[in-house]
Amino acid sequence: MNWKQLLSGKRFGMDHIRERKHDRTDFRRDYDRLIFSSPFRRLQNKTQVFPLPGSIFVHNRLTHSLEVACVGRSLSDSIGMTLRKKHGSEHLGPNAWEFGAITSAACLAHDMGNPPFGHAGEKAIQSYFREGNGTKWKKAVEKEGGRWTDFTSFEGNANVMRLLTHQFQGRRKGGFAMTYSTIASVVKYPYASMYAGQEGKFGFFQSEQQSYETIANELGLCSDPTDANKYARYPLVFLVEAADDICYQVMDIEDAFKLHILDKEEALDLLLNFFESKEKIHIKKIMNLVNDDNEQLAYVRSSVINLLVEACKAVFIENEEAILAGDLHHSLINSLGGQAQKAYEACSTFAFKKIYRSRDVLDVELAGYRIFSHLIDTLTEAIISSDHTYSKLLLRGIPSQYDTTASTTYGKLQCVLDYISGMTDVYALDFYRKINGMNLPDV
Questions:
Q1: 199 or 423: which carries more pLDDT confidence?
Q2: How many Å apart are CA 26 and CA 34, to the nearest integer?
Q3: What is the pTM of this model?
Q4: Are residues 251 and 126 both part of a single domain?
């Protein structure tokens, strides 16, 4: 793969339309387009890890995505500068200065395909089709040539690819009409669900496979050297992934402290472990210039983020040739080595035991399973049996952009998931209560 072809400002779905010139670059317009979009705004009411807060602020999908975009831009700008010095801007092409703009836009979009209730929502959808009432649709989907694993391995990453590129009812061709480079930067797993393996990760549904192939051909993405059924990752995916890894791991520790799941000493120990002894002394000295616990933790957290950005940059630059050849198969974070790698793994282990298994997080998962199962059941039955009186009432409330008249079972199920995955936590809960008669308007 080569940088000149990889850094493309061509817009998906608008190949034959010439837009008027702007002072902003195509990639900065991607960023602005996402910021002002409804799916992005809805992230403010979607769970990141912990339930949406009452009096204590913790991260939701919106604040997380903004932070990831900030870290991603810094990381990519620094890498772009290094590559320009290394190769010369002519080697990188006319968009040699746009590394940060492309990555930050992709970072904004990376969670837009996630359903309500965090990762519990994904698990609930997968479970519904693997072992719940959804199993009854398997034969019909496969008989019509649909890909059943798209549902049993439902993935927020594949769903964001659909959200960005699919022409929903009444919408323009190309979906968001983003640049090919921005879309490719979002797809962490560039292969179909049938190749997802035990982890169940994949990058596009059957309905968007041709779209991704078009993008991959335009950008010159090569096949994975170890598996011809998969594409090699688009290089900037590594940077979006690294920014996400840095933010969620570090910020979850800070959120856990604010929610009193961790005490101050536990949180500080986890974060200070990223530094060698000499640097740790310096960090503590600066930290102790203030007395406020939150400010102390915020300073150490920012220092950890800076350390990880520099470390991930070094890994990317060192592996540039392997990345362009499609030979790097693990994340930048997992390639750090040394003290940073040990500290990151310690944070991951601790978070899994004390944060992701906390009572509050468990309650979200339990609620997510019940709500999703019922919503999918009810809406699918309504779309399949659209001539029934109750179905007509229910379908009347579904926005017109969703194709409730899809001709295939695959299309009908996808319509339901499009609608549900776009809901906020609050809307999903409110809708669940309404269709069960638990939340009626004032009489």
A1: 423
A2: 13
A3: 0.92
A4: no
